[in-house]
Amino acid sequence: MTALEDAAKAIFGASPTAIETLAGGDISGASRIEFADGFSCVAKKGPLIDREARMLEAFQRLDAPSAAVVGTVGDWLFLQDLGQARPFSSATWSALAETMAPLHGAGAGRKYGWEEDYGLRHIVVQNQPRESWVEFWRDNRLLCHVPELDPDLGRRVTALAERLEDLIPERPTVSLVHGDLWGGNIVWDGATAWLIDPCACHGDREVDVATLTVFDTPPPQFFEQLDLAPGWQRRLPVYRLWMWLIHVRLFGSGYRVAAERDLDQLGF
Fold first, then answer.
1. Rg (CA), the chain
2. Nearest Cα to 185, choosing from 208, 153, 219?
3. CATH numbers and ranges of domains, the chain
4. Long-range contacts, 109-116 (Cβ 8 Å, 24+)
5. Per residue in 109-141, pLDDT tens?
6. Cβ contacts of residue 36 below 8 Å, gap of 6+?
7. Average pLDDT, the chain
8. Which residues form the signal peptide (predicted)?
9. Phi, psi at 23, each rounded to 5°
């Protein structure tokens, strides 16, 4: 019996009758498992699944469409099976804006950050709460990467960080931020855009808007539906840069050009 079968039996009292490896998952893979009674769910294995579960439960408490946690055991996380994702259409983006709506302002009264750090492979995602959003983004999303970057790229990131208060707000509305929101972490079933694989924190919701422009091209009506604060376009490269730096560290220098392009756009 495999480790997955053992974990499933511990949660459900029975072994799965079918296991299907799901496509995608550059950082952590997943499998759909089915039982004799027809019930199915998705299983993920990883060192921080308990933290991912708590993030997903935060989305659930807000009634934001997201994969529900079915159970955890050891280093296994079992999630609601959202079915086969469909290709994106214009309707997807409208539905995604509706999915994101409950997250806006959902951190009212909280500091910027999260109760615990997270991780993407070997990279620690630092989440120490701060009263200042500028300080949080500077220290936990930009400067934390500099020691691991090429010196020239690190110098440019540091220069940006030193001027960050001129580029992003000190105290934006505290929202629940998905943190890694791109097409691969959205399951579109034709009616609802479901969120999966969060890297959550409380912060500026424009972070999610920025990550959606890393590999995807949302239509203008999507941004209009979100009703973003004036100047949001100028802030996207600041927030997008964190995603590029993560990719440089995870996947290599091929992403450096994208990071430098946004630094050029920002004048650093």
1. 19
2. 208
3. 3-80 (3.30.200.20), 90-266 (3.90.1200.10)
4. 109/174, 110/174, 110/202, 111/174, 111/202, 112/136, 112/174, 112/201, 112/202, 112/203, 113/140, 113/201, 113/202, 113/203, 114/55, 114/200, 114/201, 114/202, 115/54, 116/51, 116/54
5. 999 999 999 999 999 999 999 999 999 999 999
6. 14, 17
7. 96
8. none
9. -70, 160
